[in-house]
Amino acid sequence: MSPASVPSSNDIVRRGAADLGAAIADGSLSSVEVTQAHLDRIADVDDSVHAFLHVDAEGALAAARAADEARAAGETRSPLAGVPIAVKDIVATKGQPTTAGSRILQGWIPPYDATVTTRLRAAGLPILGKTNMDEFAMGSSTEHSAYGPTHNPWDLDRIPGGSGGGSSAAVAAFEAPLAIGTDTGGSIRQPAAVTGTVGTKPTYGGVSRYGLIALASSLDQAGPCTRSVLDAALLHEIIGGHDVMDSTSIDAPVPGVVEAARRGDVAGLRIGVVDEISGEGFQPGVRARFEESLKLLEARGAEIVRVGCPSFVKGLAAYYLILPSEASSNLAKFDAMRYGLRVGPQGVASPSAEQVMAATRDAGFGDEVKRRIILGTYALSAGYYDAYYGQAQKVRTLIARDFAAAFEQADVLVTPTAPTTAFKLGEKLDDPMAMYLNDVATIPANLAGVPGMSIPNGLAEDGLPTGFQILAPATRDDRLYEVGAALEAALLEQWGAPILDQAPALPVREVTR
Q1: Which of 95, 333, 369, 459 is most buried by a 10 A CB count?
Q2: Rounded Cα gap, residues 140 and 428, in angstroms
Q3: 347 CB-near residues (< 8 Å, 6+ apart)
């Protein structure tokens, strides 16, 4: 390749993951070139975005060199071999810090990899580093990180969603072509909606939870954050599948997500609009883009039907009892006795274990984590278990039944992903209820264990991105990609370019020469 034809770093980072994987496979780009371009981009813009908590330049470049050597030797590892990726800081990575966005785990370096990490390494994806998040994934804005908030690349004064705002912001800011997020009540899909990216929550059990720091074990699910539906499908195929290390893992192959993403055919497909989550309380621009997207799908041969899911309106209340209850149990292990932060109580010469534990948890946990632990412990306490946690589980059953009934009338369900575009940093920080309402459309999927996807479907009246959510029956993740790819293609025809091309340029770090 002549010097004049060598692509610039800016050209490289704006290419999609599938495109980069193909270029690495045919030798027109090396993994080292691609990885270094993204490391340079991180150095240039992450001071403004703060998507990353830790960048592993040395490890990423070593993995990139190994990917190039494997390609030169004729090894075929995956279509994304050599393409770098960012990983949410709740996923265990051997040799790299994993803090879950909390001070209580500051400096902890796991002695093992999560299954997701193992599969990424085996497929030849260099890991750029760990992304910022709300502490222990508790939040909808990434403002509850112990290490400071992440900023939305569309407007640095706004939130990038949460809890996985670091992953979505890294992808939207072209700091990484791919990222891993986790979704407990919408923490992949809602950040995707407000940053103009694609986010998928696979079927519960479709991606191993081994090595994910648990928030709510019956809700947590890892999944892809990308800039296109095909890229998400390729990543989903790598991280998905059965894992003997996870007792909740589904013993079945990954659905045909890549084939569905390449096909994108919705002719004859019944698309159900959930009446309870599409109108009142949603920003006008969000509603307008949603209705326009429905018309685009209908023009491609889909049948639009209206479905009722009356229990969905109770999902928010049920979720905010189930999640804190499971969180209070899962976070009990952070006791200053085995690993992580240890703080002694002030003025006590020979403190007891209980005193050290209390002082450590007070210093190590942030306000939102404490709030949810208190709520969950109360809901599980004697005399209140049946009235609160037990009732919430009954609502969860009703929501699963609503999904089952709706899927008899429609092949997929659709809603706006989030009720509003990205709000200002600090705007809802002191109002937990207002913050929780951001998850109203995404929570039902986690309660029922069904897969969901958000794709960008335009800009609202404030010039910020909106999201279109697709929900499918359990283990039918391929339907998400079929519908998502069809809508993405229709929107691309309409826009003429990817939506992220409309995002304003980020300030670049000044280099003193």
Answers
A1: 369
A2: 10
A3: none
Polymer length of the chain:
513
Res 2 pLDDT > 50: no
470 within domain boundaries: yes
Q: φ and ψ at 328, to 5 degrees?
A: -60, -35
Q: Is residue 345 part of a domain?
A: no
CB within 8 Å of 434: residues ≥ 6 apart? 428
- Contact criterion met (CB below 8 Å) for 347 and 450: no
- Count the neighbouring beta carbons within 10 Å of the beta carbon of residue 5: 7
> Do the beta carbons of residue 85 and residue 180 sit within 8 Å?
yes
- Partnered with residue 415 across adjacent β-strands are 469
Q: What does the block give as tokens for 377?
A: 């412990």
- CA–CA dist 476, 63 (Å, integer): 33
Q: Within 10 Å of residue 66's Cβ, how many Cβ atoms?
A: 17
CATH code, 232? 3.90.1300.10
Closest CA to 171 of 49, 22, 63, 260: 49
Closest CA to 390 of 379, 403, 401, 398: 379
- CA 337/CA 339 separation, integer angstroms: 6
User: By the 8 A CB rule, do 444 and 403 touch?
Assistant: yes
Number of domains in the chain: 1
Number of H helices, E strands in the chain: 17, 11
pLDDT digits (tens, 9 = 90+) for 206-235: 999 999 999 999 999 999 999 999 999 999
Q: Residue 74: what are its φ and ψ, rounded to 5°? A: 85, 10
Question: Using an 8 Å Cβ cutoff, are 499 and 196 in contact?
Answer: yes
- Collapsing DSSP to helix, strand or coil, 59 comes out as helix
Expressed as residue numbers, the domain containing 224 is: 8-313+397-502
Q: Which residues are catalytic?
A: 88, 163, 187
Average pLDDT, the chain: 95
Answer whether residue 372 is part of any domain. no
**Among candidate residues 13, 453, 20, the one with its CA nearest the CA of residue 199:** 453
* pLDDT of 3 higher than 60: no
